[in-house]
Amino acid sequence: MTQLRENIFVEANMWLCMRERGKLVPGSIRDGHNAFTVTGKNWLSKLVAWSTVGPTDIPFTNRRVRWIGVGSGSQLEAPTVSSLVTPVLATATDYLRPIQMSEYPTSTSVRFTREFGTSEITIAQVPVMITEAGLYADVQPANGGGSEDSSYDPINLPSATILDPTKGTNALIAYKAFDGLSKTVDFTLELRWELRFG
Amino acid sequence: MREGCNVRMLLRERGKVVPGSLREGHNVFTTFGRRWLNGLISWRYLDLINTIPGPDTPYAGHIYRVRWAAVGSGTQPEIKSALRLVTPLVANVSPSTTYWRTPSLWSFPLNTSVRFNFSFPEADYSGSVKIQEAGLALGQAPALGGAGASIAISSGGMTIVTGLTGLLAPMEEDYLRIVDGAHPGYYRINRVFPPATPDLTATTVEIESALWLSTETGRSWSVSGNTVFGLPGLPLISYKTFEPFVKTPDFALEVQWDLKF
Global pTM? Predict the structure, then answer.
């Protein structure tokens, strides 16, 4: 029986395109399966469980899907991918941008969308080649996280789980490499990421 | 736990395994569980680095985590639509009726999996009871609130208009929600009839369709108060049925449940 499986499969699919004044730029669609990483699986295994069960339950982590980032490098789409090869600044200071919309195309899948504006990524006003993208789980640091959520502290907690969007080395939960797209200041970049639980 | 298994349960008598009581195997991760995961991994509102006051906010009802397990004496196919135990067993009636136990231990045997251990002591279940099914459910401490927060259940017991039983089929519901909360959610409702339905003997059938509004019992589920463990019908995220065994007051029951990603 196919429904009885050892693992809960997380199928990740990414779709992106560029638009010029709202119209699709011909040849700019990229889509396909992508890798849900070991980091993502580790995050899910912590997310579903309470760290402490009692009068006041405490979770291991409160991180949820929060950011999307893009880059100009490329690597094999494998579960072992840990970060973008060559992250690209989306704004003057940040590599990661928050998702703008989450929707539920079916009851067992969720789609996250981010549209990078004309001035994002191309902050130097010159075309930027985009060849990879990543999805990230995080919590607003001011929120406080679960028992294992920690802010970046290079001395005491070098493996921070709460991300710093100003750094390009954040650990991603899903990764996609694709044929290069040249983003210019005329184009917006729309990126949709869908996770399905099979 | 044997490689490839998700659920393992056995009886112990004074610490020793009761011969023939070991049950191992896969389980089914239900549609309800998938729906819960959808919301669990998503933020409802984002605090866009302090441009919008207030913290990130998760979906109400999707803050629950795995918290309960129960066993039953019934059985049903291990399919995604399995929602509740068929015949849940009362573990204890003192100080209050209890169906569900919290995990006694949980661990991470792999980097990508979590294991919950549940212990049902000798005193649980009065007399000799046949155990043939088990389920995993969600919850949170009552102190954290949660009253009113709910997760929609896709298939509950729909109230069928008398006389039309068998002709009406519950809708399969998809829904779309917008993250900023400014827009009302809208629902897309559909129903796919498999080839064998309607169960009619005529070779050709005239089809007409209608949308019926109805009250659906168990339409959503929420944690409210201290009595969750006393509710027999908690929706399951994971279900397992197996060859039955009998638990007597001499035996303790151990249940080990893995969720692997």
Answer: 0.77
